[in-house]
TrEMBL record:
Its main location: membrane. It comes from the Bacteria. Residues 350-584 form the ABC transporter domain. One of its GO terms (molecular function) is ATP binding. InterPro entries: AAA+_ATPase, ABC1_TM_dom, ABC1_TM_sf, ABC_transporter-like_ATP-bd, ABC_transporter-like_CS, P-loop_NTPase, Type_1_exporter. Residues 31-316 form the ABC transmembrane type-1 domain. It comes from Neobacillus paridis. It is a multi-pass membrane protein. The chain crosses the membrane at residues 29-55, 75-92, 144-166, 172-190, 255-278. It is found in: Cell membrane. Keywords: ATP-binding, Membrane, Nucleotide-binding, Transmembrane, Transmembrane helix. This is ATP-binding cassette domain-containing protein.
Length: 597
């Protein structure tokens, strides 16, 4: 279900003002574009007057003055040609402004996404975020390209038309002003209802993107478990809701846009013709004035029609802007860090002091976690699924903020270090490594310009990855597709190891880093890890206990608490939870009854 959201007139105005604030850096271009717009509008106002002069003063039987007609005709054609040229430059300038603004807006949104904390991504589908960065900003671009220029031009044109009408006939012009409140009423009603429908439509489009993104990422699971039919139905249901929202938009557009304005136009035309018809019974009237008035009336309603037609784009842009600014105003940002560049990690000593943590603020996933990892030591975290191992790493990497307890690095609060210092001195290798589109070399170097090709190759040799990399078609320049889909799990893991080694971190964090590597490769990796851990503080999550038997300290977690701690041999001697886990993994048949208990 989509949350029911309605935008009041005040909220819509706030969104508009905020969108217009993006025009400030482009004042010169905007002034130039509006100047061109003013000139083309003046041309539109002058043309009917020229025709009226021709009809009333020179269109007479048996009389043809060539010179005045030549001047009028030349002026008419000249204005049309100049208007066409100015219109071209005007459109280019407004497009230029729109592209500049959308470029900046997309950069702002993308930068904001990079600064958000992982907690935001836990609750927001990726497709919904993509929709805001792409579809919503595109809708905003349409507003700057067509809506604003149309409204400003229409404003100029309507003002000029009214002035010309008052010059031609004051009484009739006053009668025509009755139309203004009627038109404003139609606009207000349209804006009120269409904003709700467009918001619903945008939310449904966001859902469609989210479902599509989820389906593409999980295609292998969908096919293996035969979920195609269910996904098609879910996608179809959302698509149906999107269709229904679209039909509501079409109906209100069909009722309040062109048909309603045309009806008012016919009413105005009846007023004008009736006025001239009644007047003609008592006095003569000028045909040119009738032509000019009807022409102005037609030109009056054309910009009104344009404005009404653009109102739909305007409402889409306002709704899209509301969604984009909601993301930009999101307060679920990454945990704050100090900006002091002089505080640096030197030894890598890690201390957790009475740390408790909850993701939802209701249930603690970590309870009073206290331990110390001295420089150069390896601390391993073991425990059943959901025991809190990954949460400890998430807090150490500052993916989430904590409120109770403290984490110290080299005796200083982890909050006292800048984000760049933490990222530079801490290396993370996950169980399921992420590879970027590019080359193998790019994925190891991560576009660090100060890292040479030789350092990249040295890092690959260190983790025993050079053998399979050099067998690739282009070696280190081999293309990596999205998420490294053409590599095996073990190969992706080796590249991730090389990437971490190349960064030369002071603290090493391993989240079951050898889980996807075969036994033969694992032996080579364990040798490399032993070298890599020298001089580095290592925090390692392990499911296979055989990989952490040489750890300096093993912490056994259960339901968010440390229930046992010690070396491998000390924990086995305690014959507690660690002992049971070890027996289960090593086939201790003679102790099965003890394990069951």
């Amino acid at each position: 279900m989509v949350e029911k959201i309605e935008l009041s007139g005040r909220e819509q105005r706030k969104v508009l003002v905020r969108l217009l604030s993006y025009t400030k850096p482009h004042k010169r271009i905007i002034i130039w574009a509006f100047f061109l717009l003013l000139l083309t509008t003046i041309g539109d106002i002058v043309l009917p007057i020229l025709v009226a002069i021709f009809i009333d003063d020179y269109l007479q039987p048996g009389r043809l003055e060539f010179k005045p007609l030549l001047l009028l005709g030349s002026a008419y054609m000249g204005i049309q040609i100049v208007k066409a040229i100015l219109l071209f430059f005007q459109l280019v300038k407004f497009q230029e402004i729109a592209l500049y603004i959308i470029q900046q807006l997309r950069i702002d949104v993308f930068s904001k996404v990079q600064a958000l904390g992982l907690k935001y991504f836990d609750k927001t589908p990726a497709g919904s975020i993509v929709s805001r960065v792409t579809n919503d900003t595109e809708a905003i671009k349409d507003m700057f390209v067509t809506v604003i220029s149309t409204f400003i031009q229409s404003g100029f044109l309507l003002s000029g038309i009214f002035i010309a009408m008052f010059i031609l006939n004051v009484k009739l012009a006053i009668f025509c002003t009755i139309l203004i409140p009627i038109l404003l009423l139609v606009m207000v009603v349209y804006r009120k209802w269409s904003s709700q429908f467009y918001l619903d439509m945008r939310e449904r489009l966001s859902q469609l993107n989210a479902k599509l993104s989820e389906s593409l990422q999980g295609m292998s699971i969908i096919q293996v478990f035969r979920q195609e039919k269910r996904l098609r139905k879910e996608f179809g249901d959302i698509n149906e809701l999107h269709y229904n929202a679209g039909m509501k938009n079409i109906k209100i557009d069909g009722l309040l846009l062109r048909p309603a304005i045309d009806l008012i136009y016919i009413f105005a035309l009846i007023i004008v013709l009736s006025y001239f018809g009644i007047t003609s019974m008592h006095q003569s009237i000028q045909i040119g004035v009738i032509y000019a008035f009807i022409n102005y009336l037609d030109r009056f309603f054309e910009p009104v029609n344009q404005m009404m037609m653009r109102l739909s784009l305007y409402q889409q842009a306002i709704v899209a802007g509301h969604r984009v600014f909601k993301l930009l105003d999101e307060e679920e940002i990454a945990p704050a860090q100090s900006d002091d560049p002089h505080v640096s990690i030197t030894d890598g000593k890690i201390e957790f002091n009475n740390l408790s943590f909850s993701y939802d603020g209701k249930r603690d996933v970590l309870k009073n976690i206290t331990f110390t990892a001295n420089p150069g030591e390896t601390v391993a975290l073991v425990g059943h699924t959901g025991s809190g191992k990954s949460s400890i790493i998430n807090l150490l990497m500052r993916f989430y903020e904590f409120e109770r307890g403290e984490i110290f690095i080299d005796g200083k609060s982890i909050r006292d270090y800048s984000k760049s210092e933490l990222r530079k001195k801490m290396g993370l290798v996950l169980q399921d490594p992420f590879l970027f589109y590019g080359t193998v070399k790019d994925n190891i170097r991560l576009h660090q310009s100060n890292m040479t090709d030789e350092q990249v190759k040295e890092a690959a040799r260190f983790v025993q990855a050079q053998e399979f990399i050099e067998r690739l078609e282009d070696g280190y320049d081999h293309k990596v597709v999205e998420r490294g889909a053409t590599f095996s799990s073990g190969q992706r893991q080796l590249i991730a190891f090389a990437r971490t080694i190349a960064a030369n971190p002071k603290i090493l964090v391993l989240d079951e880093a050898t889980a996807n590597i075969d036994t033969e490769t694992e032996e080579a990796i364990q040798t490399a890890l032993a070298k890599m851990r020298k001089g580095r503080t290592t925090i390692a999550i392990a499911h296979r206990l055989s990989t952490i038997q040489d750890a300096d300290l093993i912490l056994v977690l259960h339901k968010g608490e440390i229930v046992e701690r010690g070396t491998h041999q000390e924990l086995l001697a305690q014959r507690g939870l660690y002992h049971k886990m070890f027996l289960l993994q090593n086939g201790g048949v003679e102790h099965l009854e003890d394990v069951a208990n």
